[in-house]
Structure formats: structure tokens, C-alpha cells
């Protein structure tokens, strides 16, 4: 049967797990469910699961589990030999290229991201200038992961017809 499933968690890769946990807890207010932990390739249940996911030879990695205010999980991974590309925004390639959070103070949160080592990738924009207060901006964490910020809920923003009339 088809029905709308709920979102459980996302997984992020970073080059410095401790710095990432600090960034996300201090900047976005997410809280730690499981502090940074090392996982090794062995015959434990988690070792076998990781072999299934990553293939043989992954060796070891560190992971922490955080949660958002609406109980969405965030797994943060630090793999050995982790690399931070110069530009992680390859939106034209298949795969997830950003995640979005909601905060009515879009401008304030964007400034907080920048103050904590991230960057703002564009000016804050309005979906309905002069009509509705729906705003958005793309930012980036200190590790190159793209964070979009919405001022209002996804449903409210798009049920209002965010793109209507632009290409008529």
C-alpha cells in the first residue's frame, strides 16, 4: 500500500566530527543523542552492517547521532582520509545536494552560520515580494554541506503557488 512515509534521518560526511557536532549543536541547536563513537570493521552487528553498506576495507570511522527540534535524526560521519571538495555544490549530479531547515529568522540564522565558520551562498530572497513574507537562502556548513533555510513550512510555501505566473 502506498502512503506518505515519515522522514527518519539524514547522514552527513565531514572532515572533523568533533567540530561538526559543535557547529550543529551551537549553531542550529540540535542535540546530541549519541556522542562521537568509533566504529571498526569486525564481526559485530554494526561491523557486518557497515560491510554491507560500504563494502570490504572501510576499516574504521567515527560517528555521532544528533536530533533536530522536530525529532529528525542527523548522523554525522568522519571517515578516514575524508576530503572536503573545493565546491560540494554539484547540483547537476544525481543525489542529494542540500537539506533544508526552517527558521522564521532566516537572516539571523544565516549570519549565525557564517559567524560559526560556514558561509552564505546567496542573498536572502522572497518568494512573493510585497505579498507574503516567505523567504529563503542557501548557506553552507564549514565542511561544504549545503543548508537551505526557509522562513515558513514547505507545505505553506508551495501550496501558495511559489512558481505560478513566472513562466506564463
UniProtKB/TrEMBL annotation:
One of its GO terms (molecular function) is methylmalonyl-CoA epimerase activity. It holds the Pfam family Glyoxalase. Residues 6-152 form the VOC domain. The keyword Methyltransferase does not apply. The keyword Mitochondrion does not apply. SUPFAM superfamilies: Glyoxalase/Bleomycin resistance protein/Dihydroxybiphenyl dioxygenase (SSF54593). One of its GO terms (biological process) is L-methylmalonyl-CoA metabolic process. CDD domains: VOC_ShValD_like. Keywords: Metal-binding. PANTHER family: BLR8189 PROTEIN (PTHR43048:SF6), METHYLMALONYL-COA EPIMERASE (PTHR43048). NCBIfam families: glyox_marine. This is Glyoxalase family protein.
Amino acid at each position: 500500500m502506498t502512503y506518505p512515509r515519515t522522514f527518519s534521518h539524514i547522514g552527513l560526511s565531514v572532515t572533523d566530527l568533533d567540530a561538526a557536532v559543535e557547529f550543529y549543536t551551537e549553531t542550529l541547536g540540535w542535540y546530541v543523542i549519541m556522542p562521537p563513537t568509533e566504529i571498526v570493521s569486525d564481526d559485530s552487528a554494526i561491523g557486518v552492517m557497515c560491510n554491507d553498506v560500504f563494502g570490504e576495507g572501510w576499516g574504521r570511522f567515527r560517528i555521532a547521532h544528533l536530533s533536530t527540534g522536530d525529532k529528525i535524526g542527523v548522523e554525522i560521519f568522519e571517515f578516514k582520509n575524508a576530503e572536503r571538495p573545493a565546491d560540494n555544490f554539484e547540483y547537476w549530479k544525481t543525489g542529494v545536494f542540500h537539506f533544508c531547515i526552517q527558521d522564521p529568522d532566516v537572516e539571523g540564522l544565516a549570519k549565525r552560520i557564517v559567524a560559526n565558520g560556514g558561509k552564505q551562498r546567496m542573498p536572502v530572497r522572497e518568494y512573493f515580494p510585497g505579498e507574503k513574507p516567505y523567504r529563503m537562502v542557501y548557506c553552507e556548513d564549514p565542511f561544504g554541506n549545503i543548508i537551505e533555510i526557509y522562513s515558513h513550512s514547505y507545505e505553506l510555501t508551495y501550496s501558495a503557488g511559489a512558481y505560478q505566473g513566472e513562466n506564463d
